Amino acid sequence: xxxxxxxxxxxxxxxxxKHCGTNLAATGAAAIPSDDFGLLFSSATGIWxxxxxxxxxxxxxxxxxxxxxxANIGFISGYTRSVLKVARGEGRAEIGDIFNAWDxxxxxxxxxxxxxxxxxxxxxxxxxxxxxxxxLGFLVAPGxxxxxxxxRGAIDAFKWGIESIQANxxxxxxxxxxxxxxxxxxxxxxxxxxxxxMPLGQLILVLQYDRVKPS
Length: 215
Hints:
By secondary structure, the protein is mainly α. The chain has helices at 37-50, 52-65, 71-87, 105-123, 129-150, 154-167, 169-185, 194-212.
């Protein structure tokens, strides 16, 4: 049989994948303990390796279209849902996924607009404004996934995100820092590197979301 996460061959009836370390006897949030970032990272890496070609193509198209103003909100939703689908073992990443997530466009647009306004206001504050803006980015990150995955309203998603961070502060912080660094590190290598690092960073973040996601 194949591991539904990293696609490597494992023994029939296995309860744990020997390649990515995922607990196959559990599903969803229970598959990865909330305090085990090592297992989360290992699972993300295994999934990334097992779906690398599809993720590279998905990320390439995403990078080409994400620069289009306003419409990029829909593309972000599609890219994120595609990575979620792969992380959950529900199918392959397909280029068409990027263009098929408009149902949450309105809520995500409002959410990001409010975040942008908040960031601009914070940056007007001398000295500490930039740091506060970075902290805001961390606080609003979980809500983005709740909107894209659960179609939650902007305010509801923000409230859930804050509650989730309060209950899982360290796991969210580590996942956010590592995922964000990986996701954008590739741009330092003339963008080409981002084709490899962005999907891995996104996998880390969606796995963190998936293990604490709202019902």
